[in-house]
Amino acid sequence: MSSRDMLNVLLFIAFIFCCQTALAERGMSSLDDAQSPNVVIFYVDDLGYGDLSSYGHPVVKTPHIDQLANEGIKYTQYYAPAPLCSPSRAGLLTGRTPYRTGIRSWIPEGQDVYLGKNEITIAHLLKQQGYATAVMGKLHLNGGMHMKEHPQTEDMGFDYAFVMPGGFVKNSMVEAPSSDGSARVGKMYPDNYFRNGLAVGETNAFSGELVANEVMKWLETKRADTPFFLYVPFSEVHTPVASTPEFLTMYAEFITPHAKTNPDIFHWDWLDLPFRGQGEYYANISYLDAQVGKVIKKLKDMGVYDQTIVLFTSDNGPVTRESRKPWELFMAGETGGYRGRKDNLLEGGIRVPAILRYPSVIAPGSVSNEPVYGLDVLPTLLEMLGIELPEGRVIDGQSITKTFEGRELDRKPMIWTIDMPGQDDDVNEWAYRVGDHKLILDRNEVPKFLFNVNKDPYEMINLVNKEKDLLARLEEQFQILRAEIEADPVNRTVEHD
To answer: H/E/C letters for each residue in the chain?
Structure first.
């Protein structure tokens, strides 16, 4: 072997060594390593893109979530998998657009709809790698805990569960006086939590505190030498909002005298009540922030915070001041100025905050403007942990680890779906984004809107009648993908362990 050949061999060996070292330092090595990263996902309910101070809210204080952004990467074009809760949760956990999973809209209690029995979740995949897995919070992926024929938390890969099934929050029947002397049903504490399938019954705290306390107790009892995956889907800030006096006092100037006089009026029963102000909504965001802070402090006290991948995001856009139902009155969700709100496919319905922290990989204070969405979470985590994607199924998301270094993605087309029962055929059901262009179609797949969301992020200029060639190309691509989604065979032919 010549000296030149020997030099090339030595350089190649050195290159391979450096690559392996870099991967290990960045947390991309396999789970054979002694220190496998933990994973915590905070998934909150109905929080809008503009509802955090780190995303521009001029009033609300969210110091703990803002600190996550200071220590990690903040996404400015992160989209929820769907504009409503149940399908969004299905998409996050599976990496698959919700229509593939059998969930097309939110699931009312008792309805025969559930996460497909053959879906593979993040929890399944991490459990197979020796992780302890737990879910605390709002599940909303089946018709209820009483419907044993539906997949329950253990079937979704979770060893431990403290969950409310979803739907409308039941409450203890506590009478509260009204200013006119009549009795109203009070908004108090949730009574529909289940711990590992057993009803908890009446409680003595609001939902967020119950969840945060359960998380901390579980962390204390789990084996110290076992990596963990914690999925924490808080029910805040979904109506009815309920916060402790400490946080209501913070926003007293935004709460009307009637609301202060009647603090416990049941918040499904607002239709004939005087204006309450937006302070109760603001308080609930800060209350949520405090619960996130409790969990983070626990991770720090245990000495595992910097060995934990932490994701904070929302399941869909907010309930804004544009109330559409009696129980939405006096909400004040902010979209950051984007058009739309919860339950529709405009930016305000699906663009939400997202923050990812893992100091071994992500530089503090990073910001990414790349378009990413909830279906990317599963493939991104798997790449970070050195786990292969599950076989025998389409994964609609993609890894976004390139964004950690400020690089652009070779972005796959993005698709969103939502079926709103009881509405007219012209309700928007599909959205499809390729590059900067986003196409929105109705229930009959008729194009309704075409926007360039880079040049026109507020979706004011409809290009449907102006860009005929572009529209035709996008329609053709969409129809191919739509047909493939509707024919997805997973929940008819595939069984997982």
So the answer is: CCHHHHHHHHHHHHHHHHHHHHHHHCCCCCCCCCCCCEEEEEEECCCCCCCCHHHCCCCCCCHHHHHHHHHCEEECCEECCCCCHHHHHHHHHHCCCHHHHCCCCCCCCCCCCCCCCCCCCHHHHHHCCCCEEEEEEECCCCCCCCCCCCCCHHHHCCCEEEEECCCCCCECCCEEECCCCCEEEECCCECCCEECCEECCCCCCCHHHHHHHHHHHHHHHCCCCCCEEEEECCCCCCCCCCCCHHHHHHCHHHECHHHHHCCCECCCCCCCCCCCECHHHHHHHHHHHHHHHHHHHHHHHCCCHHHEEEEEEECCCCCCCCCCCHHHCCCCCCCCCCCCCCCCCCHHHHECCEEEECCCCCCCCEEECCCEEHHHHHHHHHHHHCCCCCCCCCCCCCCCHHHHHCCCCCCCCEEEECCCCCCCCCCEEEEEEECCEEEEEECCCCEEEEEECCCCCCCCCCCCCCCHHHHHHHHHHHHHHHHHHHCCCHHHHCCCC
Sequential pLDDT tens for the chain (497 residues): 554 444 444 443 443 344 344 444 444 433 444 569 999 999 999 999 999 999 999 999 999 999 999 999 999 999 999 999 999 999 999 999 999 999 999 988 888 899 999 999 999 999 999 999 999 999 999 888 888 999 999 999 999 999 998 754 555 444 455 555 554 555 568 888 999 999 998 888 999 999 999 999 999 998 888 999 999 999 999 988 889 999 999 999 999 998 888 776 666 667 777 889 999 999 999 999 999 999 999 999 999 999 999 999 999 999 999 888 888 888 999 999 999 999 999 999 999 999 999 998 999 999 999 999 999 999 999 999 999 999 999 999 999 999 999 999 999 999 999 997 766 767 889 999 999 999 999 999 999 999 999 999 999 999 999 999 999 999 999 999 999 999 998 986 544 44
**145 is written with which tokens?**
């805990």
Pick the CATH number of 38-413 from 3.90.1150.10, 3.90.480.10, 3.10.20.30, 3.40.720.10: 3.40.720.10
Q: Residue 73 — φ and ψ, nearest 5°?
A: -115, 135
Structure tokens at 490: 């997973």
**Distance between CA 47 and CA 361 in Å, rounded?**
27
Q: What is the pTM of this model?
A: 0.90
Pair 415, 430: CB distance under 8 Å: yes
